[in-house]
Amino acid sequence: MTNPMPNTAAAATAQPAARANFQTLDSDAGVSPSTSSDVNLDVILDVSVTLSMEVGRTRIPIRNLLQLNQGSVVELEREAGEPLDVYVNGTLVAHGEVVVVNEKFGIRLTDVISPAERIRRLR
What we know:
Blueprint: H1 8-14, H2 33-37, E1 51-54, H3 62-66, E2 84-88, E3 91-101, E4 104-112, H4 115-122
Antiparallel strand pairs: 1-2, 2-3, 3-4
């Protein structure tokens, strides 16, 4: 019975390798001038993101962590009265203060991080 699969080593040596040619990519490649300034955000408007607020942080040894129980107080690194940090998917986007609205906690934004600053912090 003959082997239907060719010898790959022989097949590879039978044909000379050709150099691949790729088109040079520009920063505006594939984007027409009219669409580069007119961005359609309707595609992402219904995408859910995680919004979280951080009151503060602290570092404690595992020994102290295991001793925590109901009524324990953990001191945070943030001073009382300082604004909370507001994160979207883990990226800082604003600062704010706690408010109560209809018997629920909320946050009033006091400072929104500029898009340029958010991009700088990602790098």
